[in-house]
Amino acid sequence: xxxxxxxxxxxxxxxxxxxxxxxxxxxxxxxxxxxxxxxxxxxxxxxxxxxxxxxxxxxxxxxxxxxxxxxxxxxxxxxxxxxxxxxxxxxxxxxxxxxxxxxxxxxxxxxxxxxxxxxxxxxxxxxxxxxxxx
Length: 134
Fold this sequence. Notes:
Layout: H1 5-9, H2 12-26, H3 38-45, H4 52-65, H5 71-76, H6 81-85, H7 92-109, H8 113-130
Helix pairs in contact: 2-4, 2-7, 3-7, 7-8
């Protein structure tokens, strides 16, 4: 029996930690150990001041996307990712900034190099799909 990526990562606690580290990096101050750049600051500005709901939504989505409980679908219905992101300018810079934050989080949470690279690639495809501007 093969396990899901959700299980491979360590289930609920690992997915939550990944999401928290992602948003911690996106929310980092310029004087932090890994300071945000202008594109990450622009990405951060697309989010509300309190990231609690954003953290929950990404956690719910990733839980199901990784093969765990479909928390997002249970709470909100189909994710309709592209449609939900249309009000925001998601260009190459925003996509790349999102991936920089995610890759930093993946490096901290996912110990296995092969699993981490596979997740980065798959999430990169999702991030590219979200692009709605050149």
